Structures are given as structure tokens and as C-alpha cells.
Amino acid sequence: MRDRGYLVLLALGVALLIVVNLPATVAHNLRAVIREGLAPYQAWAARALHRADRAIEAGRDAECMRVECVRLRHENEALRTRVRNSASLDRRNLELSRLLGRARELPDSAVACEVIARDDGGGWWQAARLDRGASSGLSGGQAVITADGLIGRIRDVSNGACDVLLLSDRSSRVAVRFVRSGVPGILTGGGLSPSGEPLLGVLSPMPPLTVEYTDRSADLRTNDLVVTSGLGGVFPADLPVGVVRRIEWAPSRLYRMINLEPCADLTRVRYVLVLPQRNAMRAPAAESLREDATP
Amino acid sequence: MIYTATVLLLLLLAGLLQSLLPSLIWLGEAKVPLLMALATYFAIAHGRRTTMIVAAVAGLFQDTLSQLPMGYSMVCLMALCLAIQSQRGTWLCETTGTAVAIGFAGGVLTTVAIYLLLMAGQDYAQAPASWVVAKAIGGGLLGALVTPAVWMFAAYLERRLDLRPKTEGKIFYGST
Predict the structure, then answer these.
(1) Which residues does chain B have within 8 Å of residue A196's beta carbon, measured at their own beta carbons?
(2) Is the ipTM here above 0.90?
(3) Looking at per-residue confidence, does B172 or A78 come out higher?
(4) How far apart are CA A146 and CA A270, in angstroms?
């Protein structure tokens, strides 16, 4: 019995060695199988959580209504109830309409997806999981946007789901451009969710989105819009990324560090669009230009 | 067969919940360590063979759920469970106090160990020390919070289904 126990331990040790040295393709397939298996349940649970979220929001709305009720005693109670009930639907409708509006400006191959899980399963990366995958034509590296702007890029894809690396992750790098001045830069993630909480500087010296190494003489101001520059070949140009909130000198005083507030809400986003790869996007744009030029 | 299916179901449930439950930014965005809590339950309440298999599967599951390189969580959970196993019956037993202590220590140790492995393997952009400390403490606090509940649930399930192998005793956590 004791010998058998040691044999099992030995077998586990060998299994561990095999797992640690697993070829990348096998590890990828294993992850894909797990992701595929969990995606329906994650989608179901995400929807349940959204419903609960809406219920809580409705509760908050109700509290606001109560305060307003004191101020406006003579307001029609039935009308207010109807407004309260329709508020969450209106918000959702607005979000989807804006997304649809954005989709109309983009090539037909942009894929609309729903966020079914946030965070990496181990809490080490700033990531999100979408409910579409390779079967919908998605592949690694594609840009992911909302109606408001860029949120990240696809990192890993399986047949029916994919993982997105958000802009706020430490390993995220995006080539950007300041719209007003045209100054280029590289956007780096700080590794924390953008929460707007200034005290979080204790946890990370770098804010969620920072443009580093900008020229010290460049004309930069707060509220400047920052968009993708299109350099580097990963993201299409001119996608809104963020708005300048703070401009600081680097400790060496050789360059400036620009803190941005993201255009898109990275923490509460629910519906997104995945853009086709850049070379796939250029073709329809060029064709449309030719059509426009034809008399 | 029923026993294996139940354990696998528990692991799946723990993994699914772990991936879905939101993390708190002030705790370094540490995830609720449900898989670790479940593995430690088997370490404290079962034999070495069962423990190591459950720890290996839980670790593998955690690695596939996240972007961690394969085997990192597996190594950490197996080492943690082996350490708990070696002290079982001496000063570790199935009590709520032990569950809280193991949950906290396990959360802190696995977080630090995974971070060190990530750094050693150059698989991760270097994080600020304050963030790692917050994440480790966050992992510990969440572990201390959920481990007693997970132990109680797992023991309750085993008791209701009468699933614990005869060789591994009949005293269940939460039954005394």
C-alpha cells in the first residue's frame, strides 16, 4: 500500500514535469478546451450578474427618486415609476445604438461581441473574455473597441470565445498620437483597473494609462484627445484612446509622463466590436476612395 | 466513480466561481482562491494520494483558466498541500481556526510563489512591490475568508453523500 502511494506520487511528479514542459500548441489547445467548456456558463453567469447589477442600479435610482420626491412632492408617482423602470432599458438601448452607429462607420467584417468575464482567472493580467472566437472570424492581435474608443486587443482565441488584453495591463503598448499637436508617443498600462481613485498610487506608481517619453518641448495640454497613430501595424489609426488628465515630469526631468483617462470604460464595458486586421481594413477603405473618385 | 465525479464537479464549480467573482482593486485585484481552498480541504481531510491528485488537477485548472504558464499553479498547490499533509495530525486539524490560518497562509504563499515563478520565467512585466504585497495580503485575506466555508461545504457534501473513503476516517469538518 505504501509502495503504491509512492508510485502515485512519482507518477504525479512525472506528470508535473510533462505539464511544465508542455509544447505551446498542446498548452494552447488545453486552454482552448477549458475556455470553450466554461464560456457558456460564464456567459450565463455574466448575464445573471448584469441583471443583478441592473436591479441594484434600479434600487439606487429609486433612492434618488425618493429624494427628488421630497423636492417635487406634486410630481406624478406613476410616471416616475415608469421612468425608473425604463431607465436601465434606456441605458442599454443607448449603449447598443451608439455601438451600432460606430459599427456603421466600420467595415462589415467588424464583429460585435459581449463581455462574459472580466479579469484573468488568476488575477495577474488586466483582461476580459468575449463570447465570440475563431468561428466568428476572430484571431489574435485584432483591436477591440467600444462606441467610445479602444479597449485592447485579442490575445488568445479558441473556437467560441477569446481573451482580450486590456489597455491597462502592464504588458500593453499602443502607439498613439496627440490629436491637437500631432505629437506621437507610446501608451503603457499601469496594471490596475482605471478607477479614478487617486489613493491607488500607493499600489502602483504608474496610473492605469500613461504616455511615456514624450518630448519635453512638445505642446501638450490637459483635455487633449489621444488617438491611435497606426504605427506598429497592430491598431488602425485614429481610434480614440484617452484624454490627457495630468502632465508630469519624469524623475530624470528628461521627458514628460502624460496620464490619460480612457475614453472607453474599461471596467464596466459589456458590448464591444472587434475590428478586422489592419490589412483587411485597408482594402475596403481604398476601394471606397476609388469609388468616390470615379465620376 | 461517484466520488471522482463529485470531486471533479467541485473543482469545476470552484474554478467557474473563481473566474467569475470580481476582484477588489485595493487587494491588488487578487482573485478569490476557491481552488486553493478546495485543495487544502483534501490535504487536511484525506490521504496523500487523493490530496496530490486533487491539488494537481486544481492547479492545472487554475493555469488553464488564467494566462499563467502551464504548471505554475500546479507546482504551488502541490507543494502547499504536501506541506499541510506532512503536518496533518500534529498541529493541523479540521477546525475553523485551522481553516482560517491555512487559508491566509496558503493565499499569501501561493501568490508570492507564483509571482516569483513568473519573474524567474520572465513571463510577466515587473510589478511594483506595493502591488505584489497588496495582492499577497489580499489573497491571504480572501483565502482566510473562503477556506472555512469551502471546507464546510465540501465536508457537508461528503457527509451527505457518504463519499469519504473508509480508510480516511469518519470525522468530518463541521460535524463535531
Answers:
(1) none
(2) no
(3) A78
(4) 9
